[in-house]
Design goal:
By secondary structure, this protein is α+β, with helices and mostly antiparallel strands. It is built from eight helices and six strands; from the N terminus they run ααββββαβααβααα. Helix content is 43%, strand content 18%.
Length: 186
């Protein structure tokens, strides 16, 4: 583009690498790649469940997957118990944390220490904001946020409000996410 040409194969290689990095897999396929402090995303169909990898096959888990619950207990659990046969992937949000909150991951020691300090506590839980992803990012970055809420729920609401043919409210995922994060920063 703009006077620079790239071999077509390069785009295929990039697409293959992105697919490799983003696809869900069986738990056994990613165990070797998991590091303490990693966010682990469990695919549950319409939504994802998140936990923080503690190492040695354990995760810190927010135990409330019912959207009507208003509190959740934080537990250290075996990753297989949380997985329940669902597909998983390592899903650190380092780019989002840096871009929108200007924070980096804490040291592994701090991440694990902070996550374990929440163990057995019952904390406020909201399926659409202060959820498992929120607490997992809180432990990793010191700032809690939920990317799936921004990219799915906000998009659905805007799509319903916009209606067919109305382009006024139709926004990109990045614009929706920016709006969501502006609210999250408060």
């Amino acid at each position: 583009m703009f006077g620079v040409s790239y071999p077509l194969e390069l785009f295929g290689e990039i697409a293959d690498k992105l697919t490799e990095w983003t696809r869900f897999r069986n738990l056994n396929d990613i165990k070797q790649s998991l590091n303490p402090g990693d966010l682990v995303e469990f695919h549950r169909g319409l939504y994802s469940h998140y936990a923080l990898n503690l190492g040695d096959g354990n995760v810190m888990n927010v135990c409330a997957e019912d959207k009507n619950v208003r509190s959740a207990k934080i537990k250290e659990m075996r990753i297989e118990e949380v997985c329940r046969g669902s597909q998983v992937r390592i899903r650190n949000h380092d780019d989002v944390a840096q871009q929108y909150f200007q924070v980096q991951p804490k040291s592994t020691f701090e991440i694990i220490r902070d996550a374990k300090s929440f163990e057995n506590q019952v904390l406020p839980y909201e399926f659409d904001f202060r959820n498992c992803e929120y607490y997992s990012t809180l432990w990793r970055y010191g700032k809690g946020f939920s990317t799936q809420v921004a990219t799915t729920a906000v998009g659905l609401v805007e799509g319903i409000l916009a209606g067919p043919g109305n382009t006024v409210l139709k926004t990109t995922a990045a614009e929706r996410y920016t709006r969501y994060l502006e609210l999250a920063r408060k």
